[in-house]
Amino acid sequence: MSEPCITLLSEDLLSRWGFNDGDDPEEWLDYCEARGIDYNEIDYPLVDLVRRYLLPVIEQAVTVVEIETIHNPIRVEMVDGVDVSEVSYGRAPEPTLTPEGVDVPMAEVLRLTRELAA
User: Fold this and answer.
1) Do residues 6 and 109 lie in contact, with contact meaning Cβ atoms separated by under 8 Å?
2) Is pLDDT above 70 for 1?
């Protein structure tokens, strides 16, 4: 049986509703629950996961911004030197980001969560 993973999709960087609208993914909640971890007492490290695992593999030159919001908190602002900040609001065409995404093993998500909490 292979290790469960969180999939971070590149296109989620382009949407205010990306990355499950900024909410903890169900797979993460299920993973924690199955291991007796109270997910209400830890923070799902979305921004850190994106910065450590997704951004380094994106083939385009991207600049991201962190936004305090109830929605997706990390979004692309520039792609290959072009301002795409209006894309997340549906007011501009979406550029293509490659690769499609990256899988991060749940054990690594948990390790990162604990590292950031320390």
Assistant:
1) yes
2) no
The predicted model scores a pTM of 0.93
Quote the CA–CA distance of 79 and 44 in Å, as a whole number.
Answer: 26
Give residue 3's pLDDT.
87
Q: Give the 3-state DSSP-derived string for the chain, with helices as H, strands as E and coil as C.
A: CCCCEEEEEHHHHHCCCHHHHCCCCHHHHHHHHHCCCCHHHCCCCHHHHHHHHHHHHCCCCEEEEECCCCCCCEEEEEECCEECCCHHHCCCCCCCCCCCEEEEEHHHHHHHHHHHHC
Tokens 């604990």 correspond to what residue?
Answer: 114
Q: Which amino acid is residue 71, in one-letter code?
A: H
pLDDT at residue 89 tops 80:
no
